[in-house]
Amino acid sequence: MIKEEHDPPVMGASQGPAPMATTVINIQTETSVPDYIVWSLFNTVYMNWCCLGFVAFAYSVKSRDRKMVGDVIGAQTYASTAKCLNIWALVLGILLTIIFIILFFTGALVFSVNIMHTMRQQGGYR
Fold first, then answer.
1. Which domain of life, per UniProt (predicted)?
2. Residue 124 DSSP one-character state
3. For residue 8, what pLDDT is reported?
């Protein structure tokens, strides 16, 4: 018996003179550019100090439009501006909220002290 008849062929070994074909696939990596549109919408609805939230929303929409067209550099520029405006809107909104709370409670305290003082001068309720 011949040895080739009893041994099975080895996987991956070439069976004949067939040429090997290669395929090259070029996959372009798409740069992800955040457009901050949700953050801008939040600042527009809740913390719209000096319309900074609305302006940030406009820049976010411009950034999304540039990204859809394929202009990555333009999208990054608009997104950077939207991010800066969102940060300012958030910081100013938080500061003004804290100042309002402080003024509200100190005003309420002063009001209650004045009421007590007036009641003592008039001798209480009549």
1. Eukaryota
2. S
3. 56
